[in-house]
User: What shape does this take?
Amino acid sequence: MIKQAEPTSQNLNNEAFLARRWKRFTLVIVLFLIGVFVCLLLNIALGSVNVPLGETVKVLFGGNSTFRQIILGIRLPRAIGALMGGASLAVAGLLLQVFFRNPIVEPFVLGISSGASFLVSLLLLGSYYFGAVSVGTLSLSAAAFVGAFLVMLIVLSVANKVRDIITILVVGLMAGYLVSALSSFLTAFAQSENVHRFVMWSLGSFSSFTWKEVQLLSIAGSVLLVGSYLMAKPLNAFLLGEDYAASMGVNIKTFRYIVIFLSCALAAVVTAFAGPVAFIGLAVPHMARLALGTSDNRVLIPVCILAGALVTGVCDLGARLLFAPIELPISATTALFGAPMVIFFLIKGKTTI
Assistant: This one.
């Protein structure tokens, strides 16, 4: 008969630690899930016309109401777009912070926002010279998406040839500055009406979301978020250095390509439909790390999805309600939330990756 080994104190300590960590993770997930659901209800119920929560829940579960058109036609697509956009931006920020091992990196430092803005400015500000009378929302979304991906292709081509991570970051920054300069040239010679529309787009907003845009964002975002979660283990190995990751079987060249693609694509699909939305990708990953007390990406990514959705939903609600009936740009409220949080983390030294 084989005698069963007695449990050692180290094994018991490890089991207790894992149990505490799992309990904390479960609690954080449940709290964020509740927060996202409450945020969704409030985004639908509150506005220029307040909808009773009972009527909101009734319509969401298929009932009829005098508020049905307001809920299903206007507020629900906007709320879902904000939640999905925030989740995508938060995970994009997490991926880049791990990749560059830098706590103050966010998706737009690689020039994604600037690339999108350039093609939108070319479409809006140059439409007069091209003979276009008006530019539709779908055309703006397509232009923003293409512009973001053009910059992403530049960064990916550099990542394919250069080993130094800092060089990749600098190239992304310089590409962003270059296309921003081109946008400024267009602004200087454009008509004032087009300049106003471009400026409003560049401030970001989820107000114009339709069900078609929600569908496109949800499908693309869901695929990219699942792909990001599948990268959790390689990301954990990469935290300990490239040499360690390589010794664990991670193909560093392919890893770089995938991480940059996922982060840029997540930022690009949101920018295409909502315009540039700042600070979510920068602040939310720190919020998730603080809530969990770990840098394990297997748990950070799901929490970033929920935290990004919650924070963006709250900021979008604030943009609508703070100075109603005037609506603030979403980037104004995200900056009000994100900037103090990042400063706090930097001062307290809680920005470790």
Summary: The chain has 15 helices and no strands. The chain has one domain: 12-348. Residues 1-5 have pLDDT under 50 and may be disordered.
